[in-house]
Design goal:
- The protein has about 220 residues and is α+β, with helices and mostly antiparallel strands.
- It has helices spanning about 5-10, 20-30, 155-160, 180-195; strands at about 1-5, 30-40, 45-55, 65-70, 75-80, 90-95, 100, 105, 110, 115, 120, 165-170.
- The strands form 4 sheets. The protein has a 5-stranded antiparallel sheet with strand order 5-4-3-6-11, with no helix packed on it. The protein has a 3-stranded antiparallel sheet with strand order 1-12-2.
- The longest helix has 12 residues, at about 180-195.
């Protein structure tokens, strides 16, 4: 079962445990942690705003963009995303950005005779699992579209998008069904590591205590 470190920390105080140390503690207690990965990864990212978007003169699918990247200045970027357009707030991978999901480091270069000084990214290119994206997400077929209030020049992009998280793949044994939920696993971690539980959300009962049975007649 997949558990988000950040979501677990909503229910139990994990401030004294890194994701790696939590993994070790769970493994020592008999929970097999089959894997752990970053929800998203990328260095030298910045939020930018597309100022202009023109067709590449030597391509039927590329665009020539000028992108305001705050203190990084206005950059010329060649982009092949269908949804690239003027006014869009985007995630920009700057020169030197390492993108583990692609196995690439972004470099300045010439694309069909036009200079490109970075790359506008989708969430997939940052390593976000395709299955976790909502239906119709622009990242499935283009670059990610940020909200209009996204701050141009923001460099802590993963934190801003709440993607600075670690995902633990924990094999919960059949005799521990109580740990098949975030609240149950948080309680287990609290007990194992002597960590305080946070306030558990309460849900108002919205269902009647009585069932009404109706007989179907032909």
């Amino acid at each position: 079962m997949l558990f988000s470190y950040k979501t677990l920390s909503r229910f139990v105080d994990l401030s004294s445990l890194t994701p790696s140390s939590l993994r070790e503690r769970l493994s020592f207690a008999g929970f097999e942690v089959e894997g752990m990965k970053k929800l998203a990864q990328g260095s030298k990212l910045v939020i930018g705003k597309i100022l202009t978007c023109e067709k590449h003169p030597d391509s039927d699918h590329l665009h020539l963009l000028t992108v305001d990247c705050g203190q990084e200045g206005i950059l010329d970027i060649v982009c092949g995303a269908k949804n690239a357009r003027k006014g869009l707030k985007v995630i920009v991978a700057l020169e030197g950005c390492v993108l583990p999901a692609l196995g690439e480091t972004i470099k300045k270069g010439m694309i069909r005779g036009k200079e490109s000084n970075g790359m506008c990214c989708s969430l997939l290119e940052l390593g976000v699992d395709k299955e976790s994206l909502r239906e119709g997400s622009p990242s499935l077929d283009g670059i990610e579209e940020l909200s209009e209030d996204a701050p141009v020049g923001e460099t802590d992009v993963l934190s801003y998008l709440n993607l600075d998280d670690d995902i633990l793949d924990i094999n919960v044994l059949p005799n521990r069904p109580d740990c098949l939920s975030y609240i149950g696993m948080a309680r287990e971690i609290s007990s194992l590591c002597s960590l305080p539980l946070r306030e558990i959300p309460k849900f108002d009962k919205k269902f009647s205590d009585h069932l009404v049975m109706k007989t179907l007649t032909e």
